[in-house]
Amino acid sequence: MKGKACRDRLVVVGNGMAGMRTVEELLARDAERYEITVIGTEPHPNYNRIMLSSVLAGDKSVDDIVINPAGWYVANGIRLIAGEPVSAVDPAAKTVTIGGQALGYDKLLLATGSKPVAPPIPGLGLVGVRSFRDIADVEAMIAAAGAHRRAVVIGGGLLGLEAAWGLKRRGMSVAVVHLMPSLMERQLDVAAGELLRRDLDARGIAFFTNGQTEEIVGTDRVESVLLADGREIPADLVVVAIGIRPNVDLARAARLDVNRGVLVGDDMRTSAPDIYAVGECIEHNGAVFGLVAPIWEQARVCGARLAGDDTAVYAPPPVFTSLKITGVDVFSAGALAAAEETDDEITLHDAKRGIYKKVILRDNRVVGCVLYGSVGDGSWYVELMRQKADVSPFRDQLVFGRAFAEQAGAAATTVDVAAMADDVQVCGCNGIAKGTICRAIIDQKLQTLDAVRAHTKASSSCGSCTPVVEAILAQVTGGAIVRRDDPPICKCTELGHDAVRRAIVEQELLTIAEVRGALGWKTTDGCQKCRPALNYYLLCAWPDRYRDDPQSRFINERAHANIQKDGTFSVVPRMWGGLTTARELRAIADVVDKYRVPMVKVTGGQRIDMLGVRKEQLPAVWADLNEAGLVSGHAYGKALRTVKTCVGSEWCRFGTQDSTGLGVKIEKMCWGSWTPHKVKLAVSGCPRNCAEATIKDIGVVCVEAGYDVVVGGNGGVEVRVTDHLVRLASEAEVLEHVGAFLQLYREEARYLERTAPWVMRVGIDYVRRRIVEAADNRRALHRRFLFAQSFVQTDPWAQRAGGAAGHEYRVLAEVG
Amino acid sequence: MPARCWVEVGRLDDIPCCGARRVTRADGSPPIAIFRTADDEVFALVDRCPHRGGPLSQGIVQGRAIACPLHGWVIELGSGQAEAPDEGCTATVAVRRVGDRILLALPEGEMAAPPGEAA
Which domain covers residue B31, as residue numbers? Predict the structure, then answer.
């Protein structure tokens, strides 16, 4: 497509969501038509402005919210001029001026967005006063949160509250000044606004409603915010977030028709020939825009028009809002209250539980909803609005949500995903319509939610549409998803994990290459999924004969440290049973000083994590730690991690057994073991269970009568409480059962399967049969475990501090 | 000008088979990852994944591709392109093998003619 002569020149002013979405819509229809130049004032590629509050709150990084990375522009042959503003547009000459140079266009797209509204008050120019609009604002706010304590946010709307919450999460004390009596009054009614205020109040945000800001006070830096009624709020940072208005400067100077925004028709054309406009800078039928759903629709129409489709027309879709504050669920769409004679409000209000739902009906059709505390049905109400569906058959159940209404009968057929029109937007964050998802599922033969996310981006941002995406996936694939008992390891083979493991033992396959050869692998050297799995299976099957393949291990296990997002590593020495000594702590402190380790953190597994160590430093760091007797904690591996303990009978007045001592013995037996996934243990000295043994892979809870061994717990994404395996009388029996359980897990679980899903898959009864009831079998498992351990209990750090695998830690060369 | 030259950065055996090594830049520009495939082919890319900047040199080499260690994107070694459905591209760096020597042409330099095989 590149280098094709005589293409029309499309110039896009504005490198934001609306402009780039339009370009994407255009490219999807006709990638050849234009030579495209994009000009943006921010020095960044296009990012998701909606997610700025998540960056502020620390839930996402700037990189996470980039929609079109630099490579996208290159790959599509688009010239990007970022960080330089357009100073003028000349519709007669068909040029834009940038950096004093004229740039000609055949078609021009204005997507100049909006500007924050600045209130007419003194003090806006003081240091420490920001708007909340772009990455620079967010970076300034994050910096302020690190250096200062008190923030005042002016504006209690969506943007202001998200800013307030982000700053609160960053540790500032935050006050919100809002002109109106109720928060988010444009999206919420008074009842929901009150619940919201109560919840945010409980999270430590102070509110000054009916608060008119008179002045931002300070000499050089901001010092306080003064309200008209005389109240004064001390402040180190003031964020002004009272609204936005269309950025029409260029259009107005070019004498385009401008009212509040740049005026466009249903075809997204402005009053000047060959100039289009989309997004927050426009005005259409008297409306201006700040939410994403209508803007995606504008982009679709404008992209189609630019591609030569003269039939595409813009019709505003229903608009909905949700607030991105963790644990505060707010949703509203359309009308907020009954406005006409024929309107009805159906309300459910449970103030104690903080749940409020209101649906507004006109002639038995939904025209709006306000939801607080329970917002799962928001997309359903919007869909009913869009369909203008008659809800009288299930009106009684309407407010209880879709599940209830569908039980009532008639509704099921009206809003099934099967009946959902293809152009209905499912993912609001990324603007993905149902039809796009369906096409991707069919064309790419997608079978999983993850695959749908990878191909369409739907449900990949905030995730609130996940149930709908799953329903569409289920509907499109129908009964076609076959849940195999032993699904293929990866795309390199049709064989599953269990089949491959059996073949390794039965055919005595001794290397990864032999496995691939004997079992008909489709690729020559496998992939990042099968190579680490095969390496583990061979290691487990032939502990004395298999030679570990470092190139088939993930970087963490290859380098014996944990890679961090910036490419540095973290170092966690083993602390047996969570015990340490002055000597060890001194050695750690010395390492931190000597190598300027930027962060030291106590881990959840009762150890100390040194974060931010450069790879080249690792061998020297380890040598110093080894000096004090510290060895690798394997915190980086699919391996035995920690044995967490409480202090037990030696010190604790409730302790029934020596939990600390037993924890150390277990860790001494198990350390160094490679396992299908990470393994965490804990020993609690009494049923109060301070070591949290009942959410570990293996836990021991001491009781007066002995020891309860529990297995298959997990404290991660899906919390699972352990199953009780057996009660034992002696430490020796505990060690034998723990070793046997670990070996059974090592031999039979699939690679990357934690003990919790494994125990659920095979059943705790099976595990009991193999370990508790069959004593011979248990002893054999325990023996095999100890045999395997005899080959791995060598400190990998000491080996590398002594020079092993030196190439891993040295750069190959430095060049000019 | 030094930037126009092919610079020797090491020998083939300095890089593990199916592995990678890193070459740093004195001028502070991003490091370069040099990869060795199972067939002893050698490739070089700027050591940054187009996704979130992960160090590709720390990934797993598979065929003529590398899996990024941070989030598992797979990047073609020859083109620097991400494997579909992901989209993105890492800059490639000209590299050649002369015998067992590995020569690199620095990214900002114009490519001079490589030295002959006998050199």
Answer: 2-105
Q: What is the pLDDT of residues A76-93, one digit of tens each?
A: 999 999 988 999 999 999
Is residue B72 included in any domain, yes or no?
yes
In whole angstroms, what is the distance from residue A187 CA to residue A732 CA?
A: 65
Does pLDDT of A716 surpass 80?
no
CA max distance for chain A? 93
Q: What's the mean pLDDT when you consider all of chain A?
A: 90
Please compute Rg for chain A using Cα positions. 31
User: Is A63 a residue whose pLDDT tops 70?
Assistant: yes
Q: What pLDDT, in 10s, does the model give residues A282-306?
A: 999 999 998 888 899 999 999 999 9
Domain count, chain B: 1
Parallel/antiparallel/unpaired status of strands A114-116 and A107-110: unpaired
Q: CA B4, B9, B12: angle at the middle one, nearest 5?
A: 130
Cβ distance B24 to A563 less than 8 Å, yes or no, reads no
Angular region, A540: left φ>0, alpha ψ -120 to 50, beta rest: alpha
Residue A815 C-alpha, separation from nearest chain B C-alpha, in angstroms: 5
Residue B69 in contact with partner chain A when CB distance is under 8 A: yes
Mean pLDDT of all residues in A757-768: 91
Judged against a pLDDT cut of 50, whether residue A467 lies above it is answered with yes
Contact criterion met (CB < 8 Å) for A554 and B69:
yes
- Look at residue B1 and tell me whether its pLDDT is greater than 50: no
Name the residue among B23, B50, B69 with its Cβ closest to that of A812.
B23
The pTM of the full predicted model, rounded to 2 decimals, is 0.53
- Residues in chain A with CB shorter than 8 Å from the CB of B31 are 811
Q: Which of B62, B73, B101 to mutate to test the interface with A (most CBs of A within 10 A)?
A: B62
Q: Flag if A555 and B24 touch (Cβ within 8 Å).
A: no
Neighboring chain B residues of A559 at a CB cutoff of 8 Å: 58
Q: What is the pLDDT of residues A114-139, one digit of tens each?
A: 999 988 899 999 999 999 999 999 99
Q: In this model, does residue B3 exceed pLDDT 70?
A: no
Domains in chain A, CATH or no CATH each: 8-114+246-306 (3.50.50.60), 129-242 (3.50.50.60), 320-444 (3.30.390.30), 497-553 (no CATH), 557-627 (3.90.480.10), 640-792 (3.30.413.10)
Q: In what order do the strands lie in the sheet with A222-227?
A: A213-218, A222-227, A232-234
In chain B, whose CA is at the least distance from the CA of A523?
Answer: B63
- Segment A586-610, tens digit of pLDDT: 999 999 999 999 999 999 999 999 9
Contact in structure between B9 and B23 (CB atoms under 8 Å): yes
pLDDT of residue A388: 85
User: For residue B18, what is the nearest residue in chain A, using CA coordinates?
Assistant: A551
Distance in Å, alpha carbon of A528 to nearest chain B alpha carbon? 6
Nearest-neighbour CA in chain B from A621: distance (Å): 20
pLDDT higher than threshold 60 for residue A773 = yes
> CB B22 to CB A812 under 8 A?
yes
Residue B96 inside a domain? The answer is yes
> Does residue B119 belong to any structural domain of this protein?
no
**Of B10, B18, B86, which has the smallest distance from its Cβ to A813's Cβ?**
B10
Mind telling me how many Å the CA of B53 is from chain A's nearest CA?
8
Residue B69: CATH number of its domain: 2.102.10.10
Smallest CA–CA distance, residue B105 to chain A, in Å, is 10
Q: Euclidean distance between the first and final Cα of chain B, in Å? A: 20
Average pLDDT taken over every residue of chain B: 85
Using H for helix, E for strand and C for coil, what is the string for A508-533? CCCCHHHHHHHCCCCCCCCCCCHHHH
Is the pLDDT at A414 greater than 60, yes or no?
Answer: no
Q: Indicate yes or no: CB of B106 within 8 angstroms of CB of A526.
A: no
What number of H helices and E strands is found in chain B? 0, 9
CB atoms A811 and B23 under 8 Å = yes
- Domain annotation covers residue B114: no
The predicted pLDDT at position A416 comes to 60
Of A93, A117, A95, which Cα lies nearest the Cα of A104? A95
